[in-house]
Structure formats: C-alpha cells, structure tokens
Amino acid sequence: MIADIKAFLSDFLVLGDPLIYGADISIVLSMVAIVFVLSYFKKWKWLWKEWLTTIDAKKIGIMYIIAALLMLFRGGIDALLMRSQITFPNEGFLDSQHYNEIFTTHGTIMILFMAMPFIVGMMNVAVPLQIGARDVAFPYLNALSFWLFFVGAMLFNLSFVIGGSPDAGWTSYTPLAGAKLDPGPGENYYLIGLQLAGIGTLATGVNFMATILKMRAPGMTLFKMPMFTWSSLITSLIIVFAFPVLTVALALLTIDRLFGAHFFTIASGGSPMMWANLFWIWGHPEVYIVILPAFGIFSEVISTFSHKKLFGYKAMVWSMVLISALSFVVWLHHFFTMGNTAAVNSVFSISTMAIAIPTGVKIFNWLFTLNKGRIEFSTAMLWALAFIPNFLIGGLTGVMLAIAPADYQYHNSYFLVAHFHSVLIGGTVFGMFAALHYWWPKMFGHVLNEKLGKISFWIFMVSFNICFLPMYFVGLMGMTRRMYTYPEGLGWMPLNVVITIGAFGMGIGFIVMVYNIYWSARYGKRDKTGDPWGGRTLEWATTSPAVEYNFAHIPKVETADAFLHMKEKGTTGQISKAPFKPIHMPNNSGKPFIQAWLMFFAGFGLVFEWYWLAIPAAAATMLVMAFRSFEYHDHHYIPVEEIERTESATGRLN
Amino acid sequence: MKRLTLKSLGVLALFLVFLTGCTNKVAVLNPQGPVAKQQYDLIIWSFILMAIVVAGVLIIFIYVLVRYGRKNSKGYDPEDEGNAKLEALWTIIPIIIVILLAVPTVKTLYGLEGPPKPANATGKKVEPITIEVTSVDWKWLFRYPKQGIETVNYAVIPEDTPVKIKLKAIGAMNSFWVPELAGQQYTMPNMPMNMWIQADHPGDYLGRSANFSGKGFAHMSFHILAKKDANFDAWVKDVKANKPALTMEKYKKLLEPDIAGEMTFSSYPKVLDKKDAAMEQHMNNDDMEGGMNHDSGH
Amino acid sequence: MSSVASNQSNKPYEPLEYSTEDGRLRILGFWIFLGAEIVLFSCLFATYLVVHSHTAGGPTSKELYDVKEFMIETFLLLISSFTCGLGTHELRRHNAKGIIIWLIITLLLGLGFIYMEVNEFVKYATEEGATVGRSAFLSGFFVLVGTHGAHVSLGILWMTSIIIQLAKRGVTAVTARKVFIVGLYWHFLDVVWIFIFTAVYLTGMVL
Amino acid sequence: MMNENVEQHNAHGGFPWKHVIGLILSLALTLIALWIVVSYSFSTTFTLASIIILAIFQALIQLLFFMHLNESKSRVWQIIAIGFGFFTAATVVVGSLWIMAYSL
Ligand code: HEA
Ligand code: HEA
Ligand code: CUA
Ligand SMILES: [Cu+2]
Question: Which residues cross the membrane (chain D) (predicted)?
Fold first, then answer.
C-alpha cells in the first residue's frame, strides 16, 4: 500500500532535482504568504468582490497585465537558465531533458501567456475608453475569457512541479510530441493548457470585434477611430479566424494521445506533417496578433509625443487590413524545408515577402509623423522610437528568411532565433512597455517615474542588442536552436558569452522597471487631471483611474483625435456635467470564475487521463452554463445620486 | 537619442566585417560547393538590398530626430497629415525590392531541383552517386546502395561529383544540414525526399541535425569527407575488404534510441534493399496491426 | 406580449430581437462566432481530405458509406432547418405557441438525425471494425462527422433550454433574441452538414 | 435600412413563401448532387467540381433564405464575418491539399 502511494507520488511529483525543489518550496511559501496577508488584513471579501467576480473591463485588463508581468518573469528566468547552460561548451548545469523542458516552456509562456495577455490586457484597459463606451459588448464573457486564460496558464505552469513539463518545443512537432515518442503528462499539459487559454482568447476576439463595431460613441465613424482601436479591431479579426485552427490542432493531437487516433502518428497512415501545417496556419497569424496592437500603441505614442497628427492615417489602416489578409496565406514559410515542390515554396516565398510592403508603409508613416513634430522624449516615446530601428532589423531578417533557398541555410539556426526575438521583443515587448508607461496613470492614477523609466529603458534596450545581434552570427556559424550543449572548437563560445551577458543585462533592466513600479506606487506623481500627456483620444477625457462607468455622459465625437478637438473647442466639461441619467451596468458574477476553475479540473483530469475527475468537472461546467442561460436579472442601474457623488469626488462637478 | 542610431550603424559595420573578413568559421558564408554557392549568392544579394533599406530608414530616422528633437525646433506643423506622392514612393520602392528578391528566389528554387551543374571549367559530366540518409534517434545512417556500404555518423563522397541524397527518418523528424555544402532538408517518416550536395574540394565538412528530435538531438552531428576520385574508390575498396558486415541484429540495435560514434560496415542486410519501403514503415510503426501491409502509396 | 408588439408605434417596425442594444450586439457577436466555426470545420475537412486515402489496410470510404442512410440523415437535417426557420417566422409574428411547436418538431428531427448517426457509428465499429484508432482515414472521419454530431447534440440541449424559457416568459426582447440565435446555430449546422454530405459521403463514393 | 425592416415585416405576415422555396431548392440541389454521383456517368473531376458548386449554392440558400444574413443594421459586418470565414476556410482546405499533395 505504502509502496503504491510512493510509486504514485514519484510519478506524480517531479522529484530529484534541486532546481525544482527550489521551485516547489518557493511556490508553497508564496501561497502561504498570500493566504496569510489576505487573512491578516481581512482582504478575502475585498478580493472576491472587487476582483475575482468583477466584470469591469478595466479591472480585467489590470489582472491580465499583472498575469503577463508574472509570466514575463517566469519566462525570463527560463531564458536566463538556458543562457547559463549554453554560455560555454560542454556545460553540465542543466541536463538535456531539463533544457528541453525549459525552452519549451519559455517559448510557450512568452508567446501565449505573456505576450497575449499583455495585449488583451491593454485592449481591455484602453479600447472601451477610446471609443467612449461604458464597457465591452459582453462583459460576462469577458470575465470568462480572462479566467479561462488564467486557469490555462496555471495548468501549464503546474506541469513544472506535478508530472513534468512538456519537452517538444513550443511548436510541439509530431511525431516527436506524439504518444509513442513522448509518453507521460508533460505534452498533455501543453495541449490542455493552451486549449483552455485559446478558447478564452477566441471569445475575446469575438467580444472586441462586436465592441468596436457597434459600441463607438455617436459620431465616431470607423475612420475617426484611434489607431490603437483600429489595431485591436484587426487583431480581433485575426484572432477570430486563426484561433479555431489552434483549437482543432490541439484537439486532434489530444485525441491522438489520449484515444489512440492516428492523425499525426507514423503508424496506420497518420500524417505528422499535417500537425506542422495546422500549427502554422494558426501560428503565423498569431505572430501578427502579437505585433499589430503594438503597432497601434506606437501610433498613439508617437503621435502624442510628437504633438502632431498621425501621418497617413488611412494608409496606416489599410496596411493593417492588408497585413491581416496576407497573414493567412504565408504559413508555409515555417516549413520551407519539408520537401515541398518548387512551386509551393515559390508561392509562399513571394506572399511572405509581400508583407514587407504594408509594413514598410507603416514604418515610413511613423517616421513622417515625427517629421515636423515637436518630439518629447518621454519614457513611453523612447520605447516607441527604439522600436523603429530594432524592429527594422528583425523585419528585414524576416524577409531574408522568406527567401526559401536561403532559408534552407537559416532554418532552425540561431539566425532564426535572433529574427523572432528581434521582432517579438523589439516589436511586441517594446510596444507593451510603451503602453505600460503611457496608460499607467489611466490604470492606477499615478505616473511612473520618468528617470527610473529611462534608466530601465537604456539598460534593457542596449542589453537587448548585446543579446540578440550576436545570435545572427552564431546562427550563420552553424549553431542550431534547441541544442542543450555544444562541443568545443567551433568558435561559438565568445559570441555565446556576449549573448548571455546581454540576457542578464535585460534582467537588470527589467528589475529596474519593477522597482520603478514599486517606487511610483508609493511616491509617484498623482494624476489629478486625467490627462497627463496632453492626450488626443477619449481615454484622456475621463478621470485617472476611470470611474466604474467610464463616462457620466457618453461623449460626442466629431473628428479623429476627438479629445484634442474637444479641448480646442473647450467642450471637455460636458462629459461630466449634470443632469445625469441612471446608468445601466451589468452585475458582477462569480460564475465565470467558478466555471473556469471547473474547467481547470476537467483539464487536469484529462492531463492524467483521470476520467473520474474530467467527466464530472466537464458536466458541472455545462451546468454553470445552463444556470447562466436562465439568469435574467444580471444588470442594475447606477442611480443619479451615486453618479453625482462619484463625479464630485473626482472634482469634476464644480 | 543619437546614441541609439550610432549603435545601429556600428552593428551594421560589424556585419560587414563579418561578411568580408574572417568567414572561415562562419559556415554559411563559406560555401564549398555549387549548391551552397547558389544559396550564398542569394544571401549576399538579399543582404545588399536589406542594407539599402536599413540605410534609407536610418537616414530619415536620424534626420527627423536631430531636426525635430530639440525643444524649439522650427517647422513644427501639427496638422501635417499626409502626402500622396511620398506615400506612393514608399509603396513602390518596396514593391520593386520585393520583385528583385522574388525573381532570383524562384529561379534558384527550380534550379535546386536537379543535380548541380559541373563546377569546374572542364564541364565534363560526372555520373552522380546516390546515398540514402536515414535519421534515427539520435544518429545518422548513410547507405551506399550501389557500393553496398553502410556508415554511421559520417560519409565519404568524391569531390566534384553531384551526390543525390535520399532522405528518410525512422522515429522523430530531423533535418540534414551541412552548411558548407548545402542548405538543409527535413528527414520525415513516411515521406522520402531528395536533395543534392556537391563539394568542390576535398575536405571535412561538419553537418548536424537542424530539427529538434529529443534528448540526444544536440549530439546528432556528422562529418562529410570529400575525397579525390581515386581516394574515394580506394576507400570503398578498403571498406569492402576490411570492415565487418551489418547484420540484422546490429541494424535493429542501431534503431534503438541512443547516441553513437562513427561506424563502417562493408555490407548491409539485402532484405533492406528489397523491402525497403515496407521495412521503414515497419520500423516506424508503434503498433504492429497496421504493420507491414500499410499502404505506402505515396 | 402585447406591450411589446405595440411599442415604438411611431417608428417603422423592427423585429423584436433587434429592438435592444443588447440583442443587436449578441446577434452580431454570434455571426462573428459562426465565422470562427466555419474555420474550425474547415480544418477538420482539410485534415479528413488529406488522410482520406490513408486507410492502413482498413475499411475504405467506398466500403463503409451507405447511400440510403446518409440520404435519410441529410433529409432529416434539411427539413429540420426548414421547421426551425418556420419557428423564426412565427417569432416575427410574436406567436410563442407557434414558435414552440416548430422548435419541438425541429428537436424531434434533430434527435432522429442523432439516432441515425449513432447507429451508423456503432455499426461501423462493430461490423466493420472501423474505429477511431483503426486508421488515419477513420480518425479523420469520426472526428469530423462526430464534431458535427456533437454540435447538433449541444444544439438540442440548448434549444430545449430555450423552449422552456419561452414557455415561462413568452416572447420578450430577450427570449426573441435567444430564439433567433439558436435558429442561426441550427441553420449553420445544416450548412456544415451539406459540406459533410458533399465532401465526405458523396466524394467517398467517387474516390 | 428602415425600409428593409418594414419589408421583413411584410414578408412575415402570411404564408412563409421564402422558407418553402428555400426548402424546395435545397432538396432539389441535394438530389441533383446525389444523382450526379450515383449515375457514375461523369468524369471524376466533373463530378467533384459540380457537387462542390452545388454545395456552395446550398450554403447560400441557407444563409439567405433561412438565416437572414442580409438583414439588420450590421449586415455589412455579418457578411464580412461570414465572408472572411469562407476565405480562410478555402485557404485552409485548398492550401493544405496543395501542400500535402504528395500524400493524397
Ligand atoms: C512579432 C512577431 C513576428 C513578426 C512581426 C514577424 C515578422 C516577419 N517574419 Fe517572422 N517569425 C516569428 C515572429 C514574427 N515574425 C517567430 C516567433 C518565428 C519562429 C517561430 C519558431 O520557429 O519557433 C518566425 C519565423 C519566421 C520565418 C520562418 C523561418 C524558418 O523557420 O526558417 C520566416 C520566413 O519567412 C519569417 C518571416 C517574417 C517576415 C517576412 C516578417 C515580416 O512581417 C516583416 C516585415 C517588416 C519589414 C520588412 C521591415 C519594415 C519594412 C520596410 C522598411 C519596407 C522596405 C523593406 C523591404 C521591401 C524588404 N519569420
Ligand atoms: C515574446 C516572446 C519572447 C521573449 C520576450 C523572449 C525573451 C528572451 N528569450 Fe526567448 N524564445 C521565444 C520567445 C521569447 N523569448 C520563443 C518562442 C522561443 C522558441 C522556443 C522553442 O524553441 O520552442 C525562444 C527561445 C529562446 C532561445 C533559444 C533556445 C534554444 O533554442 O535552445 C533563447 C536562447 O538564448 C532565448 C533567450 C531569450 C532571452 C535571453 C530573453 C530575454 O529577453 C528575457 C529577458 C527578461 C528577463 C530576464 C526578465 C526576468 C527578470 C528576472 C528573471 C530577474 C532576475 C534577473 C537577474 C538575476 C539578472 N529564447
Ligand atoms: Cu423568414 Cu425565417
Ligand atoms: Cu511566420
């Protein structure tokens, strides 16, 4: 009996690795600490009422962003562990299995659990405000999206301590990731964790498309929308049409692994390449999902801090539309080297290169927005400016990869690794950092310290180049990705040392940023006006942080840069002036939280093939949905007195 | 702000040094055969075009920052919102660049389908040789069907001779990459593929798997030894005379997941030749029911 | 009910399900979701078609499919789509009873379809040894057709819940929207079936 | 736009002609497709091409006659959503078949 339990535990828990014991201990300790702090300050009820059951997009956005920062930390630690292992030849810091798990979780977490929630978080924070709406179209669904993402991320991270992490790369190619070559729960975690988060993301896409299409303030025609809203609309569109593909790919591989089907196996006629095909049909649009919102943010930031209209507004919009359509017809460039005919490779080579054209249009429009401007080098602006040359390098190396015969030489080498970090960090991460500094006052009511912000910017940005530029060369020297070690005598060592130094430098830059967050929360300048930067769009028309209902009166829009126009006309006061009408708001609800956690248990059951857990949990999920369907009283009115009280508390009424 | 752009220029300069100077260790930029050479030419051509784009963008970037980055710079115009001519310009130039890239890309793609053209000026046509390359977890098997030889983790080829590589996989996918001789192709179970390599000079060219295949992946490197024609024939003779035969038992052992050193066999089980396709299928199957009579129609 | 019918008498008539902001939003949202569903099914179709010939020595499509069976399944669904449409038609006339009757007929037809499909699957598995794990072709077949079947089953549960709500509350802006949306879903599943009918069954007879 | 809605109203006043026509058309198209296949009198290419075209018409019938794709103030967006869905779907199916042609 005891032996049975022991055997079970040693399978269940990941044993025998000091690093993981360390993680176990720190997880337990931080859990205990959280529970203690919450109980000590009697915050349980507050947590439940204000956060866990909230369906206010602004708060959901903040939760997304917190999750994203935590995941950036986790993914960053993974990165530093990897770098430590491959700095010198023949190191023994991590063994092969461990290294494989780490790059898999690093890539997966960074893209799906860091970049995605960061973006969706920013959309939640800014889009309803920018279009002058009170919330998103489906607030309840929005909360469900968040909690699905959250439990997906939790499930994925759990693999580290229970059962073992996935180890087949974030791309999870079959047959390597199939049941035969990769038995055990690790890969199941990947499949189910991504599935949960992916469904949440799909719902977000639907939600934001409906929000932006239908809930804009009166007068805000499509071509008067702020650029971030435009980018969110187009990103949502890509999400809606790309994520179902991920859903299917994951489901098919799950069915292969759990129920013995033969989609991607080698045996019984399965087609391993079909996985690569489906994965990239989703995967390529995915990289534009994570870059387009960043483009939108750069447009906002560059225009705001050049104190000038965005140059070529229409071209900016149409180039994004074109990018979104093209993003669905280029996926094969990720497997040029899988023996395709020359015709296939030619077509996909050219379609890929074509994306350079609309992207170039955007780059030049940003440059010409700066032109004739009055450039103010705020921290947010520095991130936006640094984006231009850094992303340029990444984009151009992308075009080099798009040349199929040349890709035969670059594919899966560090040249590729360098490319995608250039665009993911130089584009997406820089964009998110710009957004963080830009919208921080809108989220929390105080600005981040500029000096610390600039220090962290310079450290991070310079280290980023020290880290990733040499990677292009090690790639050309023949170093392939996903090698847990390399032999001596190939001349790869010096550059790898430089790369690792850069990686740690980025860590330091990030620490300064975190310190800035802490410092500013305590001492940072409070933003009383709601408009700290001389903003141009509607989110700056309301208070910082925005009140629950966003705007006491829905603003009327006449031009693009609506708020700037109001300021020029002197009509800004109208948004918060009496007389008020009661405001219709949806009720908070615990159901999304509960439903998501039920799905977590269903997922956990599937990971270990414990159907006694999976089936009841899934059934309970359906039950919650049925309850929801029968729920008719899910909204309330904020009475006029309360609006008056809130508005005068913000000092906007007298 | 200037620091940022200067740095980018520095980086560019560094890149140029790498291109012109010590490229011996930079395998991709050191092509040693016609296949790699074609790819190298494309790389250089694309690099030149990219450098032009970088220069163009950086010049504008530096100009606007320097000109409009000061507190009281003249020419501030908050209403400046577009310029049809300029916008047309930066749509058309990229289109031209893309065309300049696309044409040689397509040409090269079709060119790579056949054997490389003879490299030396004599232009004499040489009979290609064929090597069947199979990746197994985690080693490379090289089979010379005509010579009847099998080697592990290294292969010998005659110089200036097109070598047809037939790629197969048992187990996970890998990718066959010898950067100095040719860009890679995947090895895939159930999908035999071909590629060509050719070496201009005798030498020892390092290759490795470029596609992750599990625990032993990092150790999946191999050597391609190019020899003068006569030496190649001598090597074949020597192997035939002095090396052991690959038995079925030994072969099955090789298929087990493990890393291995270099090995040489004077022959391999003939059954592998005959029931080649069926045999690979068999080895790849995880259950035996579908086994040998799997339709290998493709 | 009468209060709803007479509202906004000065404005031109607007179907009830579009009469509130919430209703309009949800209907648009559902259309967008259907766009996503199209892509979801397209991946299953692509996979099925790619592995169609990979039978690994097991049963082939020609051996399995039975014209009579899949034609009956097709007619059941086509007619149910029609009766569901009549439900929406009654909705526009604010006739709760009419809606409920047509929706129940739709449900029965749907149940008939599911019954036939389950029978078909069981027959394949028991008589021909054709299971998901037999070959790539069969994996593709069962998962594509099964996903559609799962959608139909879900639709049945959903429609049942809406019939109950309608019986309890009559035709209001909210129930109208729900009836309309479940109708969209049902018609959509018919569209998917048409493609299954074409790309799986009919094509399976040819190739 | 308002006029459209009025029309909708009238269309729903009496006998559901639109639905009946939709049903008849869809049954007819189904039977034609079946006949093309079971008559075995056409080339494979022609058979496949024609049944695919018939299926697309069927889908349009459902969308227009039963699903009211073409009504409401957001019909542009509805049509774009469905249209982009079909664009992606076609890309996925045709692209995959082309790429994986070696194994068909
Ligand atoms: C934010 C994410 C992001 C972005 C924006 C991009 C953008 C691009 N990517 Fe990248 N890519 C990734 C993330 C991203 N990529 C990831 C994660 C992978 C690897 C995944 C893995 O295998 O793990 C990858 C892999 C990848 C490959 C596969 C390589 C291989 O596996 O061998 C290719 C090949 O074509 C490619 C190409 C491109 C191109 C052409 C662009 C273009 O969109 C770039 C366009 C921009 C410019 C070109 C610069 C500005 C333009 C001008 C100034 C105009 C003038 C220029 C010209 C005319 C050239 N990418
Ligand atoms: C948005 C996505 C994203 C981001 C931000 C990053 C960020 C980083 N990545 Fe990542 N990476 C990927 C996406 C991303 N990566 C993907 C998709 C892969 C492919 C995976 C696969 O092959 O399957 C990959 C693979 C990958 C590899 C290749 C591994 C291999 O193939 O063997 C390497 C190697 O150096 C690497 C390094 C880094 C580094 C150094 C950072 C740094 O930028 C990280 C910097 C951040 C921090 C460091 C913050 C954390 C702070 C602390 C931890 C505080 C403590 C600090 C100190 C002690 C100094 N990444
Ligand atoms: Cu008319 Cu339904
Ligand atoms: Cu891509």
Answer: 20-42, 48-67, 79-101
